[in-house]
Amino acid sequence: MLDPALEADGIGRSAFSEALAADWAARHADIADQLKGASVLVVGAAGTIGAATVRQLLPFGPAKLELVDIDENGLARLARDIRSRGDGSAIGFNALDFAGWPGLALAEAAGPFDLVLNFAAVKHVRSEKNLFTLLHMIDVNVVRQQRFAAHLAGRGLARRHFVVSTDKAADPASFMGATKLLLEAAVFAEADWPSPPRVSAARFANVAYSSGSLLESYRQRFAAGQALAAPRDTKRYFIAARDAARICLLAQLICPTRRIAIPRFEPASGAVELADTAAAFLKHNGREAVFVTTPEEAAELLAQPGPGYPVLLTPRDTAGEKEIEVFRGAGEGAEALGLTALEGVIPASIDPTRLKAALAELGRLTSGRSNATPEALATVIQDVLPGFRHIAGEARLDDRI
């Protein structure tokens, strides 16, 4: 059960976190040998997972670290935090689009790199809300990722290239999940150069209290005296940001090329109801959850004195929502990685000709040189990913509290 009282990051101990800690300890010396004196590029470094990974790898003593993110404020916060910790490493903080010309030029000028860690993504299913945000999602998650991977491979700029995927890439029910599955395929396809980088990925669970997450909203809403909200009958797995970072560093070290690391969770006990996470948060803050079904009930309860605090339960009826996460999809194989907490996924076979054609068409549709529609985008994706089954929904997360 999630217990925000146990650790500062809001995640209690679990069988998975303990297994991952054991794997991290067992492979610590190997990671140290790999990273000490290494040249590392981190893309999306200011995000929750990217920043946590930077903090995890700094103690290993890389010789050079280039950090890239379009969020210049987040990058400034990360720079202040790192320098306040007294770290004097050679670090570049670069507010850039990783796949725009300046970002590609930086990679070439500062490379080659022993390791490239890529966390850049549009990660919210809510970005499917209209054609324009959907086009942006496909551009960032697929088109630019393929361009960046081709740049690294074609110019020999990386010995290893690691990308973060998502559980939603397994049997995708949303455009976001489909773009992440295409990301994996596009990046892996670039490993066909004469001297390609070793390419790997990871899918994992929700990172608790990550930027923009439901759990982060608990803190924000509680501080503002607003009702909390959670979808009913929906279970999720949660991990700490530190553990997400360790998964990434273990995966890029252990995974054979073109493999995806996924967590081993016990389905019966590992997932928690989202409503229960709200109740646990409130208990930790000295309040008692009272579940309501309308905003009016929530407002009425907020106006009353007492320990009760409203949690608005909403239906699970928005696009792309699954009842629970899965990490390995239909047609994907399993492979041991020699770890207790993680196993490998062998991707399902994708026709390279269809993939190349789909990537080219998505590049055209996102370039502004065509009259793109959601239906046209879905058709292109389904041609290369026949298993993509979009779960439609009239409701939008942006319309709810």
Description:
The protein has 401 residues and is α/β, with parallel strands linked by helices. The protein has helices spanning 15-35, 48-57, 72-84, 101-110, 131-154, 175-189, 214-223, 241-254, 267-270, 274-284, 295-302, 352-365, 374-384, and strands at residues 39-43, 64-69, 91-95, 115-118, 160-164, 198-202, 206-207, 228-231, 235-236, 238-239, 259-263, 272-273, 288-292, 308-314, 333-335, 342-346. Helices cover 41% and strands 17% of the residues. The strands form 4 sheets. A 9-stranded mixed beta sheet has the order 3-2-1-4-5-6-11-16-15, sandwiched between helices. It has a 3-stranded parallel beta sheet with strand order 8-14-13, sandwiched between helices. α12 runs antiparallel to α13 (374-384).
SSE order:
HEHEHEHEHEHEEHEEEHEHEHEHEEEHH
Radius of gyration: 21 Å
Here the CATH topology equals Rossmann fold
Task: Please describe the biggest sheet, giving its number of strands, its sense, and whether it closes into a barrel.
Answer: 9 strands, mixed
Report the top-level CATH class. Answer: Alpha Beta
Outline the fold blueprint.
Blueprint: H1 15-35, E1 39-43, H2 48-57, E2 64-69, H3 72-84, E3 91-95, H4 101-110, E4 115-118, H5 131-154, E5 160-164, H6 175-189, E6 198-202, E7 206-207, H7 214-223, E8 228-231, E9 235-236, E10 238-239, H8 241-254, E11 259-263, H9 267-270, E12 272-273, H10 274-284, E13 288-292, H11 295-302, E14 308-314, E15 333-335, E16 342-346, H12 352-365, H13 374-384
Parallel strand pairs: 1-2, 1-4, 2-3, 4-5, 5-6, 6-11, 7-10, 8-14, 13-14
Antiparallel strand pairs: 9-12, 11-16, 15-16
Helix pairs in contact: 1-8, 2-8, 5-6, 5-12, 6-12, 12-13
